[in-house]
Design brief:
Oligomer: single chain
Strand order of the largest sheet: 1-2
GO molecular function: transferase activity
Order of helices and strands: HEEHH
Radius of gyration: 40 Å
Protein name: GLYCOSYL TRANSFERASE FAMILY 1 PROTEIN
Keywords: Transferase
Distance between the termini: 116 Å
Number of helices: 3
């Protein structure tokens, strides 16, 4: 099959569709273009997914703050007051 393609490529030089590199492979020029288009398509798809993810992160619904936490004043305990009252009585 490769020999047939090689003969066809050699006999039909005017079209220039086939390459015959020194490795002996028969390669159609459209394969390179097809691979390049596929890579570009995949790259654009990744970029679009990244853009979509960033949009989702920006537009993410976040829970509103209920209110600022206010620390309650310390409760009066007998231990802390007893030292003050003992010093006041003297």
């Amino acid at each position: 099959m490769d020999e047939d393609l090689a003969e066809e490529a050699d006999s039909d030089r005017s079209r220039g569709r086939w390459l015959w590199p020194s490795t002996g492979e028969v390669v159609w020029e459209g394969v390179f273009e097809k691979e390049r288009n596929l890579k570009n398509h995949q790259k654009e798809k990744r970029r679009q997914q990244s853009r979509d993810k960033q949009q989702r992160m920006r537009k993410k619904h976040r829970q509103k703050v209920l209110g600022k936490y206010v620390k309650p004043p310390p409760e009066d305990t007998e231990n802390s007051n007893s030292t003050m009252s003992a010093s006041e009585t003297l």
